[in-house]
Amino acid sequence: MITELYKNIYRQGIPLPKNPLKEINSYIVSEDRNLIIDTGFNTEECKEKFMQGVQELGIDLNKTDLLITHLHSDHSGLAATLNKEGIKVYTGKIDGKMINDMTDEAYWKKFDDYKKMFDLEKDHISFDDHPGYKYSPKELIEFIPLEEGDILRIGQYSLEIIDIPGHTPGHIGLYERKHKLFFGGDHVLDKITPNITFWGFDKDILSVYFNSLKKVYKYDINYLFTAHRDIIRDHKKRISELLKHHENRLNEVMEIIEEQEKTVRDTAASMHWELRYNGWEEFPSPQKWFASGEAMSHLEHLVFIGKAERTEKKGILYYKFK
C-alpha cells in the first residue's frame, strides 16, 4: 500500500517473508525525477511488491534513481536487478564496497571464524540461512559512491548525505534542511532498537553508533522517516531512549560477566531479548547470529573503555569484568 507522507514523498511497505521485522519502508520521492530509497530482499515476492508500488504511482524507471542507505539485504537486495535494468544506484563508499564483496563466497567464509570465536559451534549453526547470505545481491553493482555533504536534488528537495555509521560501518542518511526531513534507514527506529553488531576489532562500533546518534540529535527534524515501523516526530526523545537502552544493556552485560568469564554465545544466551521464544535453545539460527553479534559489540565496548578483559582459549573468546 502506497501512502503519501509529505508532498510527493511516499512510503511503500514491502513484506519481508519469515522475518521478525515483517516489512521494510521503501520511500519514493517523486518530482521532476524519482528517487527510491531501499528495496527489500532479493526475492521474487519483494520484487513483485516493489514493482506494484512503482506502477501504482506511474513512475517512469527511465527517470528514476535508487539510493541504498546501508548494506543489509532488506535494504539492498534488489539493487543489482534494478542496476541491470539501467537504474543508477547510489550508496556510501564503505557499504557499497561491502555489498559487492558479499557477492563473493569468500566474504561469508569468515562467518566460520566468527562461529568458532563466538562459541556458536555448540549450537551447530551455519550462515546458510542468514538473511544477509540468502537475500543479498548476487551480482556486482556499479554504484555511484556518495560522501558526506553530497547533495541529491529531486525537484524542490535538496537531500544532503549524512554519515551515520554504527548499525553498519558505512550507513548513510539523507537530510532535507529546508523541510526538516531525515531519511534514516535503520539508524533510529520507532519501538524497536537497531541491531548494533560486531564489525571487527579495529574500532569500538558501539561508540561509533553513540556518536552518530548524538550527531543526528542536534539536527532540526520534523519527520524522521525510518526503515521499519512508524515515522518519528520527536527524534530527540527517541534517541535519548536508545542511548538509555544501551546503557542498561551494558550494565546487564557487566553483571553477566562479573562473577566468571563468559563466551560471547553464553553472554548472549543470558541477556534479555524481546523475542517470542522460551530461551536460547528455541532461537532460530539467524537470531543466534544477531544476538551474539550484539553481545559482542557490547563486550568489546567494555574492553575498549577498560571495564572488561578479553582472553582467547583454543580460538574461543572469553570476557571477564575487571
UniProtKB/TrEMBL annotation:
Residues 23-228 form the Metallo-beta-lactamase domain. It holds the Pfam family Lactamase_B. Gene3D superfamilies: Ribonuclease Z/Hydroxyacylglutathione hydrolase-like (3.60.15.10), Winged helix-like DNA-binding domain superfamily/Winged helix DNA-binding domain (1.10.10.10). Keywords: Hydrolase. It comes from the Bacteria. One of its GO terms (molecular function) is hydrolase activity. The keyword Hydrolase applies. The keyword Hydrolase applies. InterPro entries: Metallo-B-lactamas, RibonucZ/Hydroxyglut_hydro, Sec-metab_biosynth-thioest, WH-like_DNA-bd_sf. This is MBL fold metallo-hydrolase. It comes from Clostridium bovifaecis.
